[in-house]
Design goal:
Helix content is 21%, strand content 33%. The protein is of the alpha+beta class. It is globular and about 50 Å long. This is Endonuclease/exonuclease/phosphatase family metal-dependent hydrolase.
Length: 255
């Protein structure tokens, strides 16, 4: 008789934040060092980053304390030993995109270009993680969707199409900046891919995250599938309101 592997229940903390290339609103101040401290204080197991710089030659020569390594590596430092980066936007001075920092082994990753025609470059970074003592892998997808409604509709369908290729028993976490101020994503992701937003399920509505100093729009989200429990976590307004133009979201997820 074949032995069916069993998994121990596990819980892990997720954080998502659009880091705005390390600058505050309107690029007034470079805050990546302070941002690294704040991210560390959350003590998340998985960190989903959007608008994180891979490199920027002009800033490197002009901005004080600008890291020489890619910003996702700088943020990961010695805390998150695994990381993956998906380059979305490429320009004369460098490039930026999405990244995932992980305390779990990343066994595979792939960046999907979900840009629609025009200058706006968008991506969907898919990582497969293997938590210790858990026999099923976890799919982590970091997204940054477009500013136009028609583009987002197509990009949301791309998210659903990808999720529907996974084994239906494997847990999925999709997090990032959805730019979905009209709240259209919830129904699409639920109906097409069985994904549920953590804060909507817990409190009845998505959390306002933009602008960080006085949030009016609920742009950032954490969606899950095949998670036994998912609990929103409260993060203090300070120092996050000074670190980027987006406030972060965090949640604990149990499998």
């Amino acid at each position: 008789m074949a032995h069916t592997p069993t998994s121990q229940p596990i819980a892990f903390k997720v954080l998502t934040v659009n880091v705005h290339k390390g600058f505050t609103t309107f690029n007034r101040r470079f805050m990546l060092h302070e941002l690294r401290d704040a991210v560390r204080n959350v003590a998340a197991d998985l960190v989903f980053l959007q608008e994180v710089l891979g490199t920027h030659h002009r800033h490197a020569g002009r901005v004080e304390n600008f890291p020489q390594e890619p910003h996702y590596e700088f943020l990961a430092d010695t805390i998150w030993t695994q990381y993956a980066y998906g380059r979305n936007a490429v320009y004369d001075n460098g490039h930026h995109g999405n990244a995932l920092l992980s305390k779990f082994p990343i066994t595979h990753y792939e960046n999907h270009d979900i840009s629609v025609s025009g200058p706006e470059r968008r991506g969907m970074l898919h990582c497969i993680l293997q938590p210790p003592r858990h026999h099923r892998p976890v799919h982590a997808i970091c997204v940054h969707l477009g500013l136009q409604e028609a583009h987002r509709q197509r990009q949301l369908r791309s998210v659903c199409d990808l999720v529907n290729t996974f084994d239906p028993e494997e847990p999925v976490v999709v997090a990032g900046d959805f730019n979905d101020w009209r709240g259209r994503a919830h129904e699409i992701l639920r109906e097409r891919a069985g994904l549920h937003e953590v804060f909507v399920q817990s409190t009845g509505r998505a959390v306002r995250t933009f602008p960080a100093s006085m949030p009016l729009l609920a742009l950032d989200r954490i969606y899950v599938r095949k998670a036994a429990v998912h609990t929103p976590l409260h993060l203090p307004k300070k120092p996050w309101d000074k670190l980027s133009d987006h406030a972060p979201l965090a949640a604990e997820i149990a499998l």
